[in-house]
What we know:
Structural class: mainly beta
Mean pLDDT: 93
Strand content: over 45%
Radius of gyration: 58 Å
Shape: elongated
Distance between the termini: 95 Å
Low-confidence stretches: none
Largest sheet: 8 strands, mixed
Amino acid sequence: DPDAYDFVVRASGTSDVVASYRADLSSLAGSVATVFASGFLNSSPAFGLFAAFPDGQVIELPLTPLARVQIVHNAPEPTVDVYAGNTLLLDNFVFRTATPYVEIPADRTFNVGIAPASSSSAADALASVPVSFATGKSYTVFASGIAGGSPGLSLFANESREAALNPAKTEFATHHGAPDASGIDISIFGAGPLASGLGYGSFGAYQAIDPTTYLVQVRTTGGGALIGTYQADLSGLAGNAATMFTSGLLSGLPGFGLFAVLSDGTVIEFPQVGNPSSARLQVIHNSPAATVDIYVNGDLLLNDFAFRTATPFIDVLANVPLDIAVAPDNSTSANDAFASFPVMFDEGATYIVTASGIPGDALTPFTLITNDGGREVSGVPGRVDVAVLHGAPDAFPLDMDAVFFADNVIDNLAYGAFTAYLSFDPDKYDLALRTTGTTDVIASYRVDISNLSGKAVYVFASGLLSGDPAFGLFGALADGTVVEFPLTPTTRVQVVHNSPAPTVDVYAGNTLLLDNFVFRSATPFVDLPADRNLRFGIAPENSMSVDDTIASFTANFEEGKTYMVMAAGVVGSAEKPFNLFVSDQARENAVPGFSSLGLFHGLFTTLPLNIDVQERLAGPVFDDVAFGSYTSYSDFPDGEYYIDITQAGLDDLLGTHRIDPAIFAGKTAVLFTSGILGGSLGYGLFAVFPDGTVLELPHTPVARVQIIHNSPSPTVDVYAGDVLILNDFEFRTATPFVYLPAEVAIDLGVAPGNSTSSADVIANFPTTFENRKTYVVVASGIVGSSPGFELIVNDMGRERALDDSSLDLAILHGSPDAPDVDITPFGVMTPLLAGLQYGQFTDYLSLAPTLVVLDLNVSGDPNQLIGTWGGDFTGLGGVAGVVFASGLVNDDPEFDLWLALPDGTTFPLPSFARVQVIHNAPSPTVDVYLDDLKVLDNIAFHQATDIGLFPARQPITLGVAPDNSASSADAIYTLPVDRLETNKTYVIMAAGIVGGTPDFGLFINENGRSRALNSANVEASLFHGAPDAPDVDVQLKDGPVLFDDVTFGAFADYISTAPAVYTIEVTPADDNSAVIKTYNADLSSLTGQAITLFASGFLTGGQPGFQMWVAETDGSTYPLEEIVAANEPEQTLSALQISPNPAVDELYIRFDLGETVSVRYGVRDVAGRLMMEGDFGKLGAGAFTQRIGLENLPPGMYQMELISDGGMRALKFAVQR
């Protein structure tokens, strides 16, 4: 079979093995090989065994790996045969005999079979067990069990030793091989265990002991019944390693016995002897000294016995004198002892001997403290027995409390004294040690005996209070385990009584924690034991004991956390019964500079009632808080706050409460609702602080109020009753929003500035503010006149915009003599607000926080402009404010718009005048500056702006510089302007000749119009800007003079006319019969507009030639079509058409010529700029179609001008793509 084999080579006919080789064939199924011996036995190359395969591969077989194995026959059977595989390994192997260690192939599995003596082959085996051994290791294998019985035959192997590691010692492993014995302990009488808890078939670790004579005892596991005592004479076995094993049957033959097998195969039987008189002893090392050796009658009992360690309970001789000697560690004999103590133990008694005291100390010398009432198990099944020893040499007598279990469980325990055993339930306890007669706790220790049911613990105080090793509390168990008890883990806990019940007593465990604990009172934060179950009991006041409790609750606090325990609910209520509500997120300290506030909802109602908490300014703080729930903490920057508590999801107010910075700043507190809604103990809000202070926060209704002084009066004082609240309150200033009492009448009185008392009040206004509202109160009107002084109140004020992306503005008409007004965004025709009367507030307008400009007009008449105001509000998203009209229209102080912000800041809104600029100087392109700001860049000749805005009511300087100028310093002309009025429209015309006559200048029409006053007409003004032309008139052909005696640089007044096509003539001012130029003025499409006609160019032959141009308010400019002579344009150039219109990339012009003339064309944009021009040349009479490519012309509106010797014709067209 494909498996691992060992090939043994022998000289033929002999048993002498030359060598053994491992042939691992396990992976060669289906293969064939030739094994051949090679080499020389006594020379080179050395002898070996090899295998050749059909593919030519040759492998060398390694030597067989070996293990050292000893076999012990421990099955209570007669003599047996032992087979290894199919080979008879041991013939007629006798019970309780053993082999020496022999070499057996390792690292392969083979079967070991047990057969009756004189068997014929492995087939006779009664049991067969697969075994495998590791190379280089030694094993002891026990054949155990009962053939055909239970437990059956089996092999138990233990990795073993053939010699002791310490040649001066004898080393024993242990093996439990008695089939009908349950678990056992094997110990040396008076010296301690060799093995504990050995189950059948198991092995104990090696133990090194001196080679002398011992009494070895076998007991049932756990210090139970004694099975037998055996004498083990180990003298002469120094350096030996052996296995001590039990054998035979407790209740049958062969009988139970104790044996040892040596490495040479010798089996020694230890004879059973009588049981000696004995006592049970545990030794504890509690002297704050180094490791020691302990001798009994000169024999070493404990070697290198360490401080705060203990032996298990062991059997020691009783009724005989013993000498216990204590020597330094590494001592050589009892002669090295520094202290010895004669003792005699009583038979059957149980002793705990504790080494204590300080060697060499006169007050507390080294000694042995003997307790002859020791226990190994509890006296009552299921409980734990605890005795306590005071073993701290420098500690005063001690009292001990079992915290929340029983006080003074130990009273006045002196050093060296111990208590009787106390019986406890297996649980966690905290033992607090006090100096006797005081309440000063030295330390509290967590004694966890929850897993020690049925056991006994010897607790001992150890160490020094004022030195090293430090004081501590320890416990020794019966098996020698010493446990150091940690300090009691603690947590911080505050208890609040918020149950609408009478005064109560609160118990923690069996201890009265709070005596006569009053409703709406609290403890400070205190340390309580953590990580154990604590039972809290509630009893009526003046209770006698914990037995009087009417309700109890169990809590387990986690170490290091901070807890609040709130008693709430009503005893006997089915809906919200009395309960303790626990939060592990309590705080004792606030973040510096903040007030940390949490909330507990403890208001009792029979119906579900969740609550919301809103801070008056910040908005929602705690949402939908259910009864019995805690919120997380919110951190408020130190300051004054008002909170409103409402029913969740509703506006039903429970109360408004003030957070007083004098009380709360820098502190942490939990607010809690309390009482029974609708009952005698009604709703209330309280705050509990970490020191246990409970403060009621009364219902304090308040309103948020801002006061604005907008009466055109001198500085005033404002009184609330007799209290001066605003001193020297100036016109057009405001307070920030402040809290004022609500739901009570307040007499707001106004007195002259520097008043001495409320007796100086000249106007009194009884005012009652509504809780939770926000007000803007504006002092307005005229003292002693009409309308009289008054307070205008807006009860829908805002301190922030409703949307953080919006600017919210309310507008107040506060100008006493101003008419009703309409408010219209600049550039928009439809009013935003119409008919705003004096004293009236608008609702807040939500505007985009950007440039906002508003026109104020007399209501219903857009042509009666009061003024234009606005500003750039970029970055003010979320801001709210009040814009208030202030001052007088017809007197001082001057009418203006002001803005008041919630913080009390006030400032006038910038005012603007409407301005159009037209470039009519025959000069190249120019730049225009307003002070140092370039407002127009590269404005060309004949180009105009639309109606724009310039600052009003302040001096400005207008400057003109060449195009592409760097700054206002490049100006070639400046014009100081004292101020522009905000209710006017200005047309500023650049005209004249730079460096010539008339000189270049800016000419201003301060009575410009942005629209026609008569919306059904078109209205036009004329500016004379032709430098070499005389004073002129403009008249209708065959009609009246429209503009009379207009000189260069002058604007004629506006005329209003129906929108139509007119033929107008330009004549000298003194001779209307001498027509200079005739123009076709098509005004038919300009209904409702106001335009500026301006004469431009040179009349006497200079370039550019004289033309009459039109500027519309949107910035469009274009020349009027000139008519050279009566009837001539129609006779010379007629039937003018353009197509397509709108055009895309090309335009066709069709026209008829009555005679031979030269024809050219030009294309102008709406700004009057010449965009294209061309020449068709001299054409004869006839009909013509000409193509013009528009590929380079951007989309827009244009004017096509066709010019011949007979005049100019013009048509408008559009380019679309």
